[in-house]
Amino acid sequence: MVLRTFGWSFAVTALGLAFAAWQWGWEAFGIVLILSVLEISLSFDNAVVNAGVLKKMNAFWQRIFLTLGILIAVFGMRLVFPVVIVAISAEVGPVEAVRLALDDPGRYQDLVTDAHPAIAAFGGMFLLMIFLEFILEDREIKWLAWLERPLAKLGKIDMLAVCLALIALLATALTFAGHAHVSTGHADKTATVLLSGVAGLITYLVVGGLSGFFEDRLEEEEEHEHEEEERARAEGRPVSAVALAGKAAFFLFLYLEVLDASFSFDGVIGAFAITNQIFWMALGLGIGAMYVRSLTVYLVRQGTLDDYVYLEHGAHYAIGALAAILLITIQHQISEIITGLIGVVLIAASFLASVRRNKALEASGADGTDGAAADGKDGAQDERDEKAEVASGA
């Protein structure tokens, strides 16, 4: 089951890493590997959400999503999108950006270095909004409860995430942007950082709005299908599950693509905190995208979701760390290896905490769900879950 589902992902990983080491050396091998881990970890919740929606589609549209969808995900978001970001920031055409990356790496590196304050401000604000929206939401399962509980209470204030992000942008513009690192030394990029940061904030709000629109329409479609099913049963007519799935399949496909694009933003933009090499970036993120698709299929076929409940938390803490690093790198240079390892360490810690939690729940006789996740649980269950949090390291 595992080999059949993840076989292509294993093959692409081996070929991709071998090609990186052969073409660019062991540094590229390490960066591509880190980017792959980063993409998988940041998109883990994407696979879970995809699985929940994909199981509602018929077999034909599932194949469309897993074939055409992977082409859009890998070549569209992981290859074309980084080129577009560099082209816009460096004020050159996309073809020229690719040509420079291939034929004149020195000139390309200067362009990317000069464009980095704009890229960092845009990406830093986008990633910061993802982190703030997550950390300010009151969630049933908490990893670092001592931190997440008070922040969840503050999150009840309307538009707090936007306000905090704008404060961070203003502070960055008044500190790091005044002596931004460029190819010729340092320069004042205050206006550029402010404009790019606002653009990143607007992009997040637009993407979030589109996702919310599709979610609302999807809920309306499901309610309509449920009413039709109840009416058919009351009249004694047969109900065709395939017809109902096919009726909303195209809409579901569009929803999944918008959702995947929104999840891809954090991986692509976060990759700029690790490297400016667009081919390393495309290769590492492409390998990660293959695993996300394979994980989606695995979850659909198994019919269960993963038990490692803190991975989503670790991924979002990694996003927050990448956002801070991007804003700092407007003035100061930070090693790509250090940047990548910070995310890996946070995700590994969340994985280990999930394992400890599962063992604690199993030892206490719990069923593996958070005590606050379902109504009607007694105080003893809540106490066991609280002990599990403590045992996990929270």
Automatic annotation (TrEMBL):
Annotated segments matching region Disordered: 364-394
InterPro entries hit by this protein: DUF475
Parts of the chain that traverse the membrane: 30-53, 65-90, 115-136, 157-179, 191-214, 239-256, 268-292, 313-331, 337-355
Protein name (Swiss-Prot/TrEMBL): DUF475 domain-containing protein
Species per Swiss-Prot/TrEMBL record: Streptomyces chartreusis
Xref: Pfam families: DUF475
NCBIfam families: PRK14013.1-3
UniProt feature, compositional bias: Low complexity: 365-374
PANTHER family, per the entry: MEMBRANE BOUND PREDICTED REDOX MODULATOR, SLL1022 PROTEIN
Top-level lineage group: Bacteria
Residues of the signal peptide: none
Biased composition (Basic and acidic residues): 375-394
Keywords: Membrane, Transmembrane, Transmembrane helix
Ribonucleoprotein found in the keyword field: no
